[in-house]
Amino acid sequence: MQTSKLSFFLALTIGIWLFFAFHKTVTKDLVWFSCSDQNSWVIYTSLDFNDGEAARYNVHPGIGTNFVYGLGYKIIKYLGLSEIDRSSDFKEIEDPIRLLPKVYSDGAYISIFLVFLCCLIIGTIASILTNGSIIISLFASLFFLFSSGSLFHSVMLRAELPTTLYFLLSITFFIVPFFQRTDKIKLLSSVSIFLAGFTFGLAYFTKYQIIFSLFFFCLYFVYIKFSTKTLYISSKRKSGITLALILVILGILYLGFDITFPLFWNLVFLSIFLSGIISFYTYKTKSLEVSNLSSYSSLIGEYGAGYLMAMLFVFVRGLKGETLHIQRVVDLTSLLNSNGGKHIDTNFSRCKCRYKAYLVSAFTSTEIIFYSSFSCASFNSFNSSFSPFFNPFSTNS
What's the rounded Cα separation, in Å, for the pair 179 and 193? Predict the structure, then answer.
């Protein structure tokens, strides 16, 4: 146990060092008021989005940004704190220009609220992973709050903060079934995994560089899974529903839109479809090797179904089914493509470059503390008093 504590605090030390190292990236050339053009873009596209228009904030690709800020403006107006939550509201006001400063400040308040919301979520995640450790949860929340990324984005309107929110929600939905304490919650495990895939889909179509964060998360998940020897055993009914849902969504994506999916997306669709089939035909077996295959297939199938639903939601609600806009987005978010899908990005240089900028200017220290919590959770999993919370998937409900 001493080794686990030493490893955990070593990770925390590295995280603290990175915090002090990267906070200098917020230089005088990157102060908030020098980026007002992007703020304006997010605000006006969010107000247009609330008016029923397609999401027009298209930065990497930024679709989910309008979802978050559009909802924020709706809530502010609903609370009676503003007169504006959509572009058409300006037409009903005699002097709309006088309200512009308030609209801009409301956008900043939404960003500040998102920072605190992310702090709360990451604290909750750390609490779940560490069996209710208040100290680590508080440290994780404070680490996020005072990280350079949170300070930098607290009064800015960008895609990074909504992406982080979606990603943290995705991880929360994903880990909850592994730490559930009652049989009643076990029945909702598939819904939770589905929502995890859905929220990650929103994160990906807000800033696709988040895919590398998912890769790191999967490494920790696999480590914990093998350490605790847990299996996600689904029922045939759940597997059948998941497979049917995957087929329906894929049919809509291929036949309902006049677009061409790049190789990357075809491979993604194929892997999700095959996972659904494997899960359906191997849901109950006595072979350990096949059980592990079924466990992973069930997770990928249900997670992938949620991801496909998010993709469909983005196409229908976010982009209003506009063919040219959808084609641009699928080309941009295809990791095997660059320059609008015309060339193969064999070493993922474009995506890695953007992800490096995302980490350095934003949430490096947050990711360090987050994975430090994962390390602590994996070490705690060997504690007998902690192990029952790792066995929710051992039923066929």
Answer: 13
- The predicted-structure confidence for 21-52, as pLDDT tens digits, reads as follows 555 555 545 554 455 677 888 999 999 999 99
Summary mean pLDDT of the chain: 76
Return the domain boundaries, the chain.
Answer: 2-390
Element (H, E) at 130: none
Judged by DSSP in three states, 61 sits in strand
Would you give the DSSP letter of residue 273?
A: H
Nearest to 118 by CA among 366, 357, 350, 373: 366
Q: Are 94 and 88 in contact (CB under 8 A)?
A: no
Structural element, H or E, at residue 99:
none
Cα 51 from chain centroid (whole Å): 26
Instruction: Find, among 395, 386, 199, the residue nearest to 298 by Cα.
Output: 395
What are residue 370's phi and psi, to 5 degrees? -65, -50
Res 10: pLDDT: 65
pLDDT digits (tens, 9 = 90+) for 90-111: 888 888 888 888 998 899 899 8
376 SS3 class: helix
CB of 47 closer than 8 Å to CB of 84 = yes
How many residues in total does the chain contain? 397
State the angle between helix axes of 134-145 and 2-22 in degrees (0 to 180), rounded to the nearest 10: 10
CB of 130 within 8 A of CB of 137? yes
Q: How far, in Å, CA of 288 to CA of 236, rounded?
A: 18
What residues have CB less than 8 Å from 53, skipping those under 6 apart? Answer: 87, 320
Using an 8 Å Cβ cutoff, are 12 and 375 in contact?
no
Which residue did the predictor score with more confidence, 352 or 216?
A: 216
Confidence of residue 392 (pLDDT cuts 50, 70, 90): very low
Structure-token match 């006088």, residue found? 98
**Alpha-carbon gap, residue 14 to 372, rounded angstroms:** 10
Tell me which of 17-21, 77-81, 136-140, 251-255 is least confident: 17-21
Backbone phi, then psi, for 81, in 5-degree steps?
-95, -5
